[in-house]
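$ fold --in a.seq
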Amino acid sequence: MKFRIYIDEVGNPDLESSDDLNHRFLSLTGIVIELSYAQETMHPQMEALKSRFFHHHPDDPVIFHRKDMLQSRGSFSPLKDQEIRRGFDSQLLELLRTWDYTVISVCLDKKKHKEQYTTWRYDPYHYCLAVLLERFVFLLQQQNSKGDVLAESRGGKEDIRLKKVFWRLWETGTDFVNPETFQNYLTSRELKVKPKANNITGLQIADIIAHPSRNEILYENGFLEVSIAPFAQKLIAILQSKYYHREGNVYGKKLL
């Protein structure tokens, strides 16, 4: 079996903005899916859900995007009808509950990071990606499998930066995973970067899950000053069985 981790980020890696509470945290959420399962089960079921509720056509596919879904914008305008919204939310949550995937979320407090390391510090994105991929490799070791990495495209310079960060991890490893182990379990030295507009199921799931997972981590550590919305609470309840577990411990969520 071959697995792929689909990565979505919430926040930005700019350390200079870390004093602003709205920009203090950067999180990366990865959804690990076995590739044939994604193709044969998850993708057709997601497409069927879209066709059931929206004007979805292969030539002009509906792309799940959390913010647009919450605000009933664009393709998701039918969700303004509360009966349709309840039906859609119920069926989406059921799919997220029954699908076979594993979640790994890493959240960095950039303010603490900046204060602790005054002379030298990791690039925030590099730090988060390193921890995320360490745990992905541990999972691949447990499964005796290999995998690769696909992140959502941010365009231009951002994509180049992501690829350079990944390449450095491949070449040098981390304090906990040597480069030989990365190279043994990851099938490519190149980070795949594609836009959600390509209708990639794993990226759409990562987009739906990333923000609630981040908020759960912040809430557990006393950093969330607003209440978690009811739908997000239901999603977070589902995530408890989806987070990566290792040796009886939850390795699928981490505050740095």
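$ fold --in b.seq
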Amino acid sequence: MDRVVNAMWRLKRSERAETALFYWRMQGLKVIRHAEQARSYEVTFPTVSFPPNITDKAAHTEASEALERAKRERDRDEVLVGCVLGSEAGKLARYERGLERSLFRTLDELRQLQDRRRNRPLPPIFDAVTLAAGDTE
């Protein structure tokens, strides 16, 4: 039974990691959108390195503040977990599939033990991998 609890806990952990990855990507998109919006109120001269001329100071200030909030949210430690996991997404998916298979094997083993104790026949338990591999029709 401890193996089932452990596998369930690890599956929940991978679910939280996936959520962090998606949230980090969403925050990155927000930063890009707010930066573009703030730049839309700026007029720059390509040949001169003066500060940009702001066409609408109130809207530019509001867009710049929104950009800073989005950057702070994107760069929080909890969100950066998603950044780290972004490069490891394939490994994470394989890890999750392995945990699911382990959970199904453990549950099947538990069911067999319970059925033996009750002297009942053993109908098979199928998981998605077994069904996909055995489905040849």
